[in-house]
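subagent[fold] <- orchestrator: predict structure for attached chain, return tokens only, no commentary.
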Amino acid sequence: MEIKPIKTENDYENSLERLELIFDANPNSKEGDEAEILSMLIENYENRYYPIEAPDPIEAIKIRMEEMNLKQKDLVGIIGGKSRVSEILNKKKKLTVEMIRELESVLQISASVLVNNYQLVS
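subagent[fold] -> orchestrator:
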């Protein structure tokens, strides 16, 4: 087992290939330990060079609604009336602090995601 930092794209590709070979190794084996360490190195490299940006607040709400099989009408009463829900989901109006609190509670979306800035549509 030769473990070294992943510094280049070539190192990254080789690490992915190696991990694929040993992925199902017994966790208490030499190869299992190697797989665990290698996956941490790969994750570190990907976080640095291939970061995944969080969706804007409205997209996060829509994603969560889909995950929970909710429809737009299910947000009525949580963030306002039918027209207010439509305005928010169509980015015509911004979320208020009270809406963010309710959405965090009901949809279990972190307020830190919901407070991010986003562009309104004219």
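orchestrator: received. Logging for downstream: The two ends are 58 Å apart (CA to CA). DSSP finds six helices and no strands in the chain.
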